[in-house]
Amino acid sequence: MPATGSMAAWHSGSARAPIRLGRESRVGAEWAIDWMLQRNNSLAPGQLLAFYASLCVLSLGIAAGFWVQGARMVMSFAGIEMLAVGCALWVVARHAADSERIELRDDRLTVEHASGSHVERVEFQPAWVRVEPGHGDRSLIELSGQGRRIAVGRFVQPEQRSQLVSELRWALGRWRQGGMLTASM
Q1: CB of 99 within 8 A of CB of 36?
Q2: How many helices (H) and strands (E) does the chain have?
Q3: What is the CA radius of gyration of the chain?
Q4: Is 176 helix (H, G, I), strand (E, B) or coil?
């Protein structure tokens, strides 16, 4: 069943809709639009490791000072504290590369959702994809077709999800029309 809803972006007379969240390209004769949606991380994994190392040096240095003064239990509590902080930062670092990638190529729509070490991949024929926005402010966007379903939009701010829905519908509409890209691309 074709995507439902308004595809006003490509009916407006312009050959291309403003793609803000995705990237439109043509390689040879193949047309493509890619959306790479990633978690917004304030620290890169290397920076996170440097932060943890400096925290360990500081905490264990202070504990060593107390050790020298005769307070031997401070070192064991500092070690337990650094172990707990290390475990928490490991969980954060494990999900730092979580992402969603949506690719519309000439013959398929591929969606990959990576969470930790688990990767879920679903391929659709573009002619049968439905784009179904959620009904609440925080709900995700569902792509469905051919008995398969996947939710996307985890790494897009809720107020930008309608833009993602519009871009997906516009791209699928262009695919169905057969006019993938204009010659000016």
Answers
A1: yes
A2: 4, 8
A3: 24
A4: helix
Distance CA 10, CA 14 (A): 6
Per the CB < 8 A criterion, the answer to whether 168 and 131 are in contact is yes
- Rounded to whole angstroms, how far apart are CA atoms 122 and 99? 14
CA torsion through residues 88, 94, 95, 97, sign: positive
The percent of residues above 90 in pLDDT, for the chain, comes to 50
Please indicate whether residue 84 or residue 23 has the higher confidence score (pLDDT): 84
Which residues partner with 123 through β-bridges?
A: 110
> What is the residue-wise DSSP string for 95-113?
TTT-EEEEEE-SS-EEEEE
For residue 168, give the nearest of 96, 116, 102 by alpha carbon: 102
Mapped onto helix, strand or coil, the DSSP state of residue 109 is: strand
Residue type, 175: W
The torsion region of residue 11 among left (phi > 0), alpha (psi -120 to 50) and beta comes to: alpha
- 17-15-123-160 Cα dihedral, nearest 10 degrees: 0
